[in-house]
Amino acid sequence: MKRVINTFTFILLAVIGLQACNRTKNDENQKNTKPKVRVEQVYKQEVEQLYEYTATVQAEAVNNIAPTIPGRIDKIFVEVGDNVPKGKLLIQMDENNLLQAKSRLENLEATFKRLDELYKVGGISKSDWDAQKTNLDVARTAYEDLKKNTQLHSPISGVVSMRNYDAGDIYAGNPILQVQQIKPVKLLIHVSENMYTKVTKGMDVKVKVDVYGDEEFKGKVSLVYPTIDPRTHTFAVEITIQNSDAKIRPGMYARVTVNMGSENRILVPDGAIVKQQGSGERYVYVYKDGKVSYNRVVIGKIIDKSYELISGVENGDFVVTSGISRLNNGIEVELVK
Questions:
Q1: Helices of type H across 44-165
Q2: pLDDT, tens only, 298-321
Q3: DSSP letter (8 states) at residue 332
Q4: Quick one: fold of 52-60+181-262?
Q5: pLDDT for res 26
Q6: What is residue 32's predicted lDDT score, i.e. its pLDDT?
Q7: Under a CB-based contact definition with an 8 Å cutoff, are residues 181 and 158 in contact?
Q8: pTM given for the model
Q9: Angle at alpha carbon of residue 167, lines to 164 and 168, rounded to 5°
């Protein structure tokens, strides 16, 4: 019985020893196995520098229609949404004051005509003639002013966008109507100061309006503001869209793409970019002489399935595109096709 127990114990110890030996060999094999990676050589190439900005569509001009003096509104000839040409009669105010001013002007004109004849033959003095002429000029100015404030015309071609009163109301301060010129429309974007020398009046830009999806509209830089905002270090740029079909309306949300020229940049596949956990830093493994180095990179825009690199990788470098999960800085690797 004792012999059987000793034999069993010997066999058990032999099995345990064999397993330990195999485990040690496996560990050594794993340590000696180089991570297998695929690499891709990257080069500089011309990359368009496209920048996107957001803005809200604005009317080219906005006019508030109202008299300069209080009065009763007699008639309003348009409604919100009506298209109006320049010079169209929009509002008729009460005419009583105008009629009174007209009557007074006619009387003064008749009186001055008689006095002018007397003055020519020496019947009145120069001072009397001057006083009467002044009264006539004042009355004529007052009449013309009342006339402009009695019949209100549109100073621009556009669309009626607001109405605050009805016929019979007393005008008391708020505009009676608002007319907006929407052919063309404009956008105001704010561009980083380091682009100041690259933006010029007349530049073509592309515009997309959210409500119309991917449809593109042509715009032009119509104004580059001459100063930089010291708080934001940006400058304002005005974009004009002809909008001949009046499809784009003020208040719509738009995206403007501006081409700032091209630069020689390295493009790296998106699979080669490693994001550092807990920070916004990006890295790339660069392969050289059988080893990889962990290079911090500054990325630019995403172009298709690649990243534009501003710095961190040299022209002609080999970057690791697969097998990244097992890598550490400075370790040896095995290349696979």
A1: 96-120, 126-150
A2: 988 888 888 899 999 999 999 999
A3: B
A4: Elongation Factor Tu (Ef-tu); domain 3 (2.40.30)
A5: 44
A6: 57
A7: yes
A8: 0.71
A9: 110
